[in-house]
Amino acid sequence: MAFYLDRPAGFTFTAGQFIDLSLPNLSTSDPEGQTRSLTLASAPSEQKLMVATRLRNTPFKRMLAEMPLGTTIDLEGPFGQFTLPSDDSRTIALLAGGIGITPFFRMLGPLTRSGAKERTCLHGFSFWEC
């Protein structure tokens, strides 16, 4: 599930970084707390911030999914150094599973524009049978 947030004034980030979202008015106690770290899936140049998450059945995720548009939430960050190296001559391998692919969404654009001569793209998915 993807969520779009208004970008705070002066907020800058690099593809691969994450933010902490807090819901201080969480109505039901969540054993995982009222804050989640979520990777920014939007491009640094976009007006809105986008985060994506698995929609698990926790009080935090339910409240996030059910909040009315315009609800104010707490945002901190950006955090993290899982970003592309400035040396674009290096070989880069990106490997992820499930929602872990989120940071790669906006890393792929700069990689394709870098002029690298070799590219290998692997796409995988998994499923569970219960």
Automatic annotation (TrEMBL):
<dbReference type="InterPro" id="IPR039261">
    <property type="entry name" value="FNR_nucleotide-bd"/>
</dbReference>
<dbReference type="InterPro" id="IPR050415">
    <property type="entry name" value="MRET"/>
</dbReference>
<dbReference type="InterPro" id="IPR017938">
    <property type="entry name" value="Riboflavin_synthase-like_b-brl"/>
</dbReference>
<feature type="domain" description="FAD-binding FR-type">
    <location>
        <begin position="1"/>
        <end position="85"/>
    </location>
</feature>
<dbReference type="GO" id="GO:0016491">
    <property type="term" value="F:oxidoreductase activity"/>
</dbReference>
<dbReference type="InterPro" id="IPR017927">
    <property type="entry name" value="FAD-bd_FR_type"/>
</dbReference>
<protein>
    <submittedName>
        <fullName>FAD-dependent oxidoreductase</fullName>
    </submittedName>
</protein>
